[in-house]
Amino acid sequence: MRESIARRAAQAGLLLAIFVGLACSSPPQITGPGGSSATSAVSSSSSAATSTGAGGEPVDAGVDAPPPPPAVCTTLNLASVPFSEGPYGTHRRDIAADFTLDLVNEDAWNFKERWSGCESYVFIPDVLPVSGLDKTSIWEQGIAKLVAISPANVHYFFVSRYSTDDKAKASTDAMRAKIDADLAKLTPEKAEPWKSRLHVVAKRAGALDNWIKDVLAGHGQPGFTIDRAQRVRGIGNFADVKQYNQALSDAMQWPWKANLAYASYEARFFNWEADKEAALAAEKATVVPFWTGETLSELAEKDIVLPSAAEMATFDTLEVEVWSGCPDAEKPEFGNCGAWDYIASLGVQDPTTMANVEIARFITSYHRETHWVEDISPMLALLQSGGTRHFRYDFAPSWNVQPTSTTFSLRFSNKNKGYRPVQAVYLWPGGNFDSTYAAEHLPTQVPVDADAKRVELWALVTGHGGATNNCSEFCNHQHQFKVNGTTYLKEHKEAGTLDKCIAHVDNGMIPNQGGTWWTGRGGWCPGQQVDPWSVDVTADVKSGNNMAALEYAALYKMAVPPDNSGNIDLSSYLIIYK
């Protein structure tokens, strides 16, 4: 749980406080609007992903109406879920109730009638300025860049938060004109799908007669979203990594200008999430809950009752699912959720040594709620005895405990792989990434039973901190494993790049965080699960007469790392399957 001194300086709390104040303040004068040791219960989940439309034909909504909603999902080849009948709420992750909005130059839009079950919805107010020195609304940027990088299954709603009808109307009329002008510049083929996806709300937020008004006045002041599962969600900071402005930094303002196009990343994350949740719903999983929304701080330990050893022997798959939320449901995410990107590690107590053994790793976000799903199936080998086991979840340091609403569970299932992990032999930990690293990571040998069906290397490896070469967080530290003479290399080529973490929005990283979430790291991205690295070494072990001779080295530029290069967090195993 370390943090870069350079990053802390670049993201001083003052800058974040300035950003939060801008995002959640009264509407700016926009220029031209124009202008607990406890025992858990074990539950079973066997629901399947539903492929169905909203049911019934929508009412005639005029020439601008989209095709019947189910056709959207069929055309885009996306799974559809039915409209939920509640219970409803207005906090983040509550189910969104029906609503109707009057729109500028469109017929009224009814949520339930237009529900397709495969789309997300992003509400963007006109109070979001370009920067702390430029109070112009991001609406002024138009939608050309936004639609260019948006997925095809998102609706954008532009709503004014001005306090008077006249100012709000000027703002929304101007935005409608900008949208139409930008669409007119596109080819008909590119413009047509967006004509029914870019909506300007006719009434100002404070004059709405439904729950949208309350959200925009509360935790949704910076905007909000509704995901593909019909849940109310937050919205992030649209700071553009390629629009750093030194003048802002000199004035002690948040130094990146906002870019409306970054709203698209919210929808991209929801697509990852929907696919992942559909896969989970299709499983016949035995779900073991740890926490169900309690607010945890720094760490939590708990005795958990797992299925019996006999039942554990029927599983070949283990996944961990985590929802991390802000402690105050009434407030926006920024200044509410934890501010820093710390290691969040799940460990289980070894019954022999009583040591805490890491089995899963995540990285907390900058000021945003997260949802992680990670496959840690090899760790079944450490849990195969079943029964009561002691778990520990560390996610923040003692000097910054980051209170977090936490929903956490393990999911056990059988995917008929034909083998399951029966032995996990611990190999090497990490350590200081410097010239002494090699001396602390000596070769070892592991015998393997002749009837093993599969043997693999499996590791959680991330780099943090460092004064030299911006290692280990921002450099390509390399990890060379040898199995009976065959070399396998894990590299981190994204480390130190300006924006390579952005692509991880499509793999579980929450976007639009309140820090340098875009920049590539050494084995991780802020607000994402740490994906384990694994490689099949069965052939190498078999060729060695069922003996694995193992060597390991951590390198920088394929050489001994220089001193003061941070640290490597490593949990490595040889996994044996039968």
Structure, described:
It contains 13 helices and 26 strands. The chain folds into three domains: 5-35 and 56-268, no CATH class; 36-46 and 284-416, Jelly Rolls (Sandwich); 419-578, Jelly Rolls. With 578 residues, the chain is α+β, with helices and mostly antiparallel strands. It has helices at residues 5-10, 13-24, 69-76, 111-114, 144-149, 165-184, 188-191, 211-217, 246-250, 264-282, 309-312, 380-383, 538-543; strands spanning 43-45, 100-103, 106-110, 120-125, 154-159, 198-200, 224-226, 232-233, 239-244, 256-258, 285-296, 299-306, 317-325, 343-349, 356-363, 370-375, 387-394, 404-413, 421-432, 444-447, 454-464, 477-483, 486-490, 533-536, 547-556, 567-577. The radius of gyration is 25 Å and the shape is globular. It is 18% helix and 30% strand. The strands form seven sheets. The chain has a five-stranded antiparallel β-sheet with strand order 1-11-18-13-16, with helices on one face.
Task: Break the fold down into its secondary structure elements and pairings.
Blueprint: H1 5-10, H2 13-24, E1 43-45, H3 69-76, E2 100-103, E3 106-110, H4 111-114, E4 120-125, H5 144-149, E5 154-159, H6 165-184, H7 188-191, E6 198-200, H8 211-217, E7 224-226, E8 232-233, E9 239-244, H9 246-250, E10 256-258, H10 264-282, E11 285-296, E12 299-306, H11 309-312, E13 317-325, E14 343-349, E15 356-363, E16 370-375, H12 380-383, E17 387-394, E18 404-413, E19 421-432, E20 444-447, E21 454-464, E22 477-483, E23 486-490, E24 533-536, H13 538-543, E25 547-556, E26 567-577
Parallel strand pairs: 4-5, 5-6
Antiparallel strand pairs: 1-11, 2-3, 4-7, 7-8, 9-10, 11-18, 12-17, 13-16, 13-18, 14-15, 14-17, 19-26, 20-25, 21-24, 21-26, 22-23, 22-25
